[in-house]
Automatic annotation (TrEMBL):
Domain of life: Bacteria
Leader sequence residues: 1-21
Alphabetized InterPro entries for the sequence: Extensin-like_C
Keywords carried by this UniProt record: Signal
Residue ranges the record marks as coiled coil: none
Protein name as annotated: Extensin family protein
Extensin-like C-terminal domain mapped to chain residues: 41-213
Keyword Signal tagged: yes
Listed Pfam families: Extensin-like_C
Source species: Sphingomonas naphthae
Length: 213
């Protein structure tokens, strides 16, 4: 019995010296979005939605910039200007947001239909907020998109810059509705309430989040 008690004590002390595992924390990181299997599944989901796209070759740039696992969206249901390389993992929720959230909000608040969207672009090899010394922007990974304006079938043009705090209450509600729906699809969403640098566009990315402002 004494020997058994000593063995149990040794096991107990050994367990006390081990590192605790945080509840719910995975022991290994999940697969990268550039993993060929994940990328194939993402591209298949885009095709299943009826989205027209072009797969782009992987590219690496100085200063850590890259455009890997990316596509160029050709047709997502609404023409969107100035779209360049987008990681598939961003292109998929963006396509769903364009097709579903934007049109739903336009019908609800503008009694209209969006016929074109204007973007400030996607890939750009630069630091956050274009400020030297900041960490690399998600734009530098083809992992972000900026949306600035919406053209309606009746000729109206809604801009984030003029409409976010503009005089038309329904325009304000429309813009906040699409901002709110974006927060449910993207990891990071920034708009005019985030800071002065986003006074004229909505920024979406799939970087570290969640953050919605």
């Amino acid at each position: 019995m004494r020997i058994l008690a000593l063995l149990l004590l040794a096991l107990f002390l050994a367990s006390c010296g081990s590192s605790p595992r945080a509840p719910g924390r995975p022991t290994q990181a999940g697969p990268s979005p550039d993993d060929p299997r994940i990328l194939r599944q993402c591209l298949g989901n885009l095709s299943a939605l009826g989205v027209s796209y072009q797969s782009l070759p992987d590219r690496q740039f100085p200063n850590g910039c890259s455009a890997t696992g990316s596509v160029k969206l050709v047709a997502v249901g609404i023409p969107v200007t100035n779209l360049g390389a987008l990681k598939c993992g961003l292109a998929l929720p963006f396509s769903l947001w364009v097709r579903e959230s934007v049109q739903q909000a336009a019908r609800a608040w503008l009694d209209g239909y969006v016929t074109k969207m204007e973007s400030f672009g996607t890939f750009a090899c630069r630091p956050v907020n274009n400020q030297a010394g900041n960490r690399l922007s998600e734009h530098g990974r083809a992992n972000a998109v900026d949306i600035a304006a919406f053209q309606l079938a009746d000729g109206r043009r809604i801009t984030v810059k003029e409409g976010w705090n503009g005089p038309d209450a329904n325009v304000r509600r429309f813009l906040r509705a699409i901002h709110g729906s974006a927060c449910r699809r993207f990891n990071v969403v920034l708009g005019p309430d985030a800071n002065a640098l986003h006074h004229d566009h909505l920024h979406f990315d799939m970087g570290r989040g969640p953050y919605c402002r």
